Amino acid sequence: MEFDGEIINFNIYDAMRYPSDVSSLNWLDVIDPLSNDYFELSNHDSLELVLNRSIDELAVKELTEKFKLEEELKDLVSFMDAQARYETPKLQLPVTDQKLLPSVVQAPELELKPLPDHLKYVYLGENDTLPVIVSNKLTKEQENELVDLLKSYKEAIGWTIADIKGLSPSLCMHKILMEDDYKPTREAQRRLNPPMMEVVKKEILKLLNAGMIYPISDSKWVSPVQVVPKKTGITVTKNEQRELVPTRVQNGWRVCIDYRRLNASTRKDHFPLPFIDQMLERLAGKTHYCCLDGYSGFHQIPVAPEDQEKTTFTCPFGTFAYRRMPFGLCNAPATFQRCMVSIFSDYVEEIIEVFMDDFTVYGKSFKECLNNLKKILKRCIETNLVLNYEKCHFMVDQGLILGHVVSAKGLEVDKAKIDIIKSLPYPKSVREVRSFLGHAGFYRRFIKDFSKISRPLCELLQKDVEFIFSKECEQAFDTLKEMLVTSPVIQPPDWSLPFEIMCDASNHAVGAVLGQRKDKVPYVIYYASKILDPAPTQLLDH
Q1: Mind telling me which PANTHER family this protein's record contains (predicted)?
Q2: Which listed residue, of 58, 94, 117, 416, carries a Cα 20 to 30 Å from 486's Cα?
Q3: Which residue range is the domain that position 177 belongs to?
Q4: Sign of the alpha-carbon torsion through 372, 374, 377, 382
């Protein structure tokens, strides 16, 4: 732009490196000379002008300069008005005075998902409100008994976040203990696309209204927000054989916080999780199950007041800190498992199995399972632990637990996961081979000689080995998929009976089968196998 014979340059790339108010300084630099000239002309001493100059010369010069100055001012004002000024958009959360009420006080409107044939909805409230999911195979009398029990203890079930009361700090509280040489970090917020922005906005409002987070202006620790897909509830889908299989579907988003910097400076809590195979063995062989799930389980545990500042996160709507334990903290699983074991300490491995926020109540008959469920619901109310109506299945004859199906028949693989493995094409990279072996290896206890069969695939994972997916690899790949589809039903061990073990070995692998006999009929408990390194192989030769 040219002004008063001087060319003024404005480089937008240089300006973007400075605060936004720098642009206003450029604008003021242009106006200041004009305003000074206009001020001098408007406040001149007329007597001085008359004495020093002739009237004609004065009149002509004054009128000319005034006219020229006013025209330049008009042009400049018109130019500035015509330009679209950039302003940083201000994202604000709407102010609401609406207070969330518990579902037992004001029943919420819920969108119910389709269920498999063996499940159905029943309602604990009037006018078909407060739904829960129960087995569709119960008799009318059994269903009435179950519904009456759930109505009596419906405070243990949550339908909205307003139903979460929070555990007592005297019972359980999450603490964030730091390493000796830690350094606080403040990370910048990350860009979010419009759909994710809306998800974050709804989540912030929900947590604010529930009192689980609060705004904070200053913190030594600031972590960014991350939005990831979330699987909620269960629905039914058809596989290639047109069989109906229950499947967890991704129908929502989860707002997480990237606490990696904080976790790196946090002292680790080593509270153990239970062994999955042992837990499944205790569950298998029962007639009735109640598969329970905590409602936003982590958010039910309070954070120690002195550590709440460390949970601060940043998003387009500001910075907030958690009053309740958020997802993403490295010690959150250990804290939650310790808390659940503490709550159900006298019931664990007797009438309930606890793995994080997944609880499974079981019994050898309907009456026994109903009585066990009553004890658990009563304990939940006593400790303010709330269950998620959408993820709780009451009195089913089989349960989908940790990727396995448990029932009175025993322990089986999850058909939905097997269908995914079966549909996989031949791997084209080492990464795809490793992924396939990870999926198949999850069910290796169901596959005899797993290590021996998978040996050609495992060799592709070795260092400095050229990736060639040979005919031998294809055969191993197809064999593993076929054995998963036709995998047997594994029986849980009966500790009152003797065990039988059959072993075998080759130059490359060893294998074993653990089993028992009941009424002179043998059955398998566990398949085990292992590929041998060169040194153990040499020992076998001797």
Answers
A1: RNA-DIRECTED DNA POLYMERASE HOMOLOG, TRANSPOSON TY3-I GAG-POL POLYPROTEIN
A2: 117
A3: 119-412
A4: negative
